[in-house]
Amino acid sequence: MAKFILKRLAFLPVVMLCVTMLLFAILQLLTPEMRASLYVKDPRQLAAVDQIIEKYGLRDPVYKQWGRWLSQVAHGDLGYSETAKMPVADAIRAFFPATLELTVLSFIPILLLGVFFGTLSAVYKDKWLDQTTRFVAITGYSLPSFVLGLLLLMVFYGKLQLFPPGRYSLDTDLLVHGESFRHVTGLLSLDCLLNGEFKAWLDVAKHLVLPAATLVYIDLALLLRITRSSMLEELGKDYIRTAKAKGLPGAVIVRKHALKNALIPVVTLSSLIFITLLGGVVITETVFDYPGIGRWGVVAAQQLDIAGVLGSTMLAAMLFVAANLVSDILYAVVDPRIRVG
Questions:
Q1: How far apart are alpha carbons 237 and 327 in whole angstroms?
Q2: pLDDT tens digit string along 123-137?
Q3: Which of 27, 61, 92, 189 has minimal Cβ neighbours within 10 Å of its Cβ?
Q4: pLDDT of 59-113, one tens digit each?
């Protein structure tokens, strides 16, 4: 296992190089003038555009531009994001904790509810519980996230004034940016508790409810379907019939025999859901005005913020490789028969 992990970690730089190489190739579709125009405030300053092109070598061959950028990254410089008005590394540190906070709050109920009700749905096939979970799965899988998000906003914010969009209110904004507030983890809800600011914690929690509820309902649907399908397949196999013939209790058969074997595709899907959430759920973050990494990446792409696009894409690629590594390790934990090498 250690050899396998080291091999995958060694493969990470190769993935990063391929991702950045592909991005640089795509960026060549933009003219040097288009790439330089982002840093010029007055469109009449054509001379400034030429100076930027000359300064950063935007007309150089793509391999030279790519090599310069890799050299900067090796020295810890990811460039300056004009859309975030800060260095890319600082922008990642500013936006990623918000996405991580939303991801953790959403993924835990997705995983627990998906496995629990997906299993029950298979065990009680065609009963009322199965019909209910199938309805949730079908509607969640079919409903666009922006439609659900807007509906939740209209009801719980527009009508009931309960859960506002954004990440926090003005009072909490002044508090968290004050000198006395200690940013320990970067997760605002947790930092509020560590600072003893329970009123601010409640405000942050209220802002998280609607985006988290949207993600849970949408992503829970697919996990329910996969868990149910995998469990139904396992419950119909010979070893389950043998266990029943031996007189084993139904709960033991489901928990200790069928569920373990059914979790293999669930582990795969769960890791993909987690990395999708962690990479930034653009539509949900946009609908709820939530300042996450995905929303920043899209804004950077829209405004031709090359440094921001490269930084956010590199982060997403690293997270994807890490999630696949964890997923492969979990295979061996769930099913000891699987050996990775």
A1: 25
A2: 888 888 888 988 888
A3: 61
A4: 888 888 888 888 888 887 888 888 888 888 888 888 888 899 999 999 999 999 9
**pTM of this structure:** 0.81
Instruction: Give Cα separations from 136 to 118, 143, 226, 269, 330 (angstroms).
Output: 11, 10, 13, 18, 28
Quote the CA–CA distance of 138 and 126 in Å, as a whole number.
15
Give, in words, the CATH class of 86-334: mainly alpha
- What angle is formed at CA 18 by the lines to CA 15 and CA 21, rounded to 5 degrees? 150
Residue 197: DSSP 8-state = -
- Please state whether beta strands 80-81 and 86-87 pair in parallel, antiparallel, or not at all (unpaired): antiparallel
Of 127, 133, 334, 135, residue with least CA distance to 224: 133
Other CB atoms within 10 Å distance of the CB of residue 170: 9
Token code pair at residue 117: 């009700």
Q: Where are the beta strands (DSSP E) in the chain?
A: 80-81, 86-87
Q: What is the DSSP string of 137-176?
A: HHHHHHS-HHHHHHHHIIIIIIIT--S-SSSS-HHHHHHH
Q: Is 245 exposed, middle or buried (0-12, 13-18, 19+ CB in 10 A)?
A: exposed
| Domain edges within the chain | 2-81, 86-334
What is the SS3 assignment for 7? helix
Q: What is the DSSP string of 224-262?
A: HHHHHHHHHHHHTSHHHHHHHHTT--HHHIIIIIIHHHH
